[in-house]
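User: Please fill in residues for this 409-position structure.
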């Protein structure tokens, strides 16, 4: 009986041991010793040039502190300060490795030495780039918030949180770049970071939504602390902007607390940023007012508004009321303050009432007129007795007109 030959087994590579590592280090030392013995003159020249490069780069780093002193008007948040601070954070290890890389080819070093130099320079360059990017990003954040009225704990917490997030993100990217350049398989690491980030985002999506809304308020500045705003059906003055919520003092003295995301989802009216306030009200004139008086009314109202040093917008017929001819009146107060608008509305209202009294124009009031059957052209015998009564509400006497005008003005 013939035996079936077994297929050849795949050879298994032996594991990497400490002996192998020691052998590679010994080979590197032997190659370096031979190189030093053969190229000592070129090595000295390269060392001299490298020292000059190090001194030049160190002097350039010192210029960063001088750039920081150029901005004196923005409390150290100007762009020259940001650039200077980034330059000043250049590490000596990066300067040294950059100088070595620039002069390394002069003495023709062994390939093993160049691999070591290249690896160290990759590490230095990746983390140095992360440092520069962090300083520029954080400097831009401080530059953006320096001119706003965002002081105290909220801004400090926001900047601190941004610093942590930016530092973690940049150095994580730098670590992935270094490991990839050194020959490591980083796909699993990237996948793990992505899954972890998604899990954290889903677990705290409400908190992150309010957090990013707070950052949007700080950077976009739809309103600031102390601004009077209106949102939805509420109004008040902003007292504090936190990372989770905003506190608003209502017009009746109550404190309203609303989450930042919910607040930004609404239409916000910043009353503090108004250049003026528009006042609008309706005048109801009695329906027996002569047409000539109605035609002259817009001019009368304009004279009274301009006499009070307000900005006249428009005045004219609006609609037919049940017991009146309605006229629309609009004017602007010169100030955005609510109290100034309130006083202007009071003053203009009384002035119009006084002018209507002088012109003998009556304001409307509810009236009802009852007609007898004979006046309506009907047979009196076909109408109930109660329908034969005639009631007419007469206009007020001249002595009562002023009080009535003031009541309905």
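Assistant: Residues filled in for all 409 positions:
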């Amino acid at each position: 009986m013939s035996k079936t030959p077994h297929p050849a087994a795949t050879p298994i590579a032996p594991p990497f041991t400490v002996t192998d590592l020691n052998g590679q280090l010994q080979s590197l030392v032997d190659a370096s010793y031979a190189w030093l013995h053969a190229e000592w003159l070129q090595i000295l020249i390269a060392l001299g040039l490298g020292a000059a490069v190090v001194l030049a780069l160190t002097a350039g780093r010192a210029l960063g502190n001088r750039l920081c002193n150029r901005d004196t008007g923005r409390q150290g948040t100007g762009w020259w300060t940001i650039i200077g601070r980034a330059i000043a954070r250049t590490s000596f290890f990066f300067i040294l490795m950059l100088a070595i890389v620039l002069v390394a080819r002069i003495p023709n070093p062994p390939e093993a030495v160049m691999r070591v130099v290249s690896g160290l320079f990759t590490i230095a360059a990746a983390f140095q780039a992360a440092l520069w990017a962090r300083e520029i990003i954080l400097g831009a954040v401080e530059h953006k918030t320096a001119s706003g009225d965002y002081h105290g704990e909220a801004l400090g917490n926001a900047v601190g949180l941004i610093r942590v997030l930016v530092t973690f993100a940049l150095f994580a990217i730098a670590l992935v770049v270094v490991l990839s350049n050194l020959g490591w398989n980083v796909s699993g690491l990237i996948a793990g970071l992505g899954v972890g980030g998604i899990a954290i985002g889903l677990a705290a999506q409400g908190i992150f939504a309010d957090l990013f809304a707070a950052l949007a308020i700080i950077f976009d500045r739809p309103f600031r602390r102390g601004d009077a705003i209106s949102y939805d059906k509420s109004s008040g003055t902003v007292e504090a902007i936190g990372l989770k919520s905003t506190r608003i003092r209502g017009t009746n003295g109550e404190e309203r607390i609303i989450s930042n995301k919910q607040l930004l989802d609404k239409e916000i009216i910043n009353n503090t940023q108004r250049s003026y306030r528009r006042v609008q009200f309706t005048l109801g004139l009695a329906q027996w007012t002569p047409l000539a008086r109605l035609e002259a009314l817009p001019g009368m109202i304009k004279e009274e508004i301009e006499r009070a040093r307000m900005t006249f917008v428009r005045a004219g017929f609006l609609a037919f009321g049940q017991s009146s001819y309605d006229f629309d009146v609009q004017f602007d107060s010169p100030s955005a303050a609510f109290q100034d608008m309130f006083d202007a509305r009071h003053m203009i209202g009384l002035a119009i009432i006084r002018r209507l009294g002088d012109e003998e124009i009556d304001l409307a009031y509810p009236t009802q007129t009852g007609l007898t059957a004979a006046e309506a052209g009907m047979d009196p015998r076909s109408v109930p007795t109660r329908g034969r009564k005639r009631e007419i509400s007469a206009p007020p006497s001249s002595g009562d007109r002023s009080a009535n005008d003031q009541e309905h003005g």
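For context: The radius of gyration is 42 Å.
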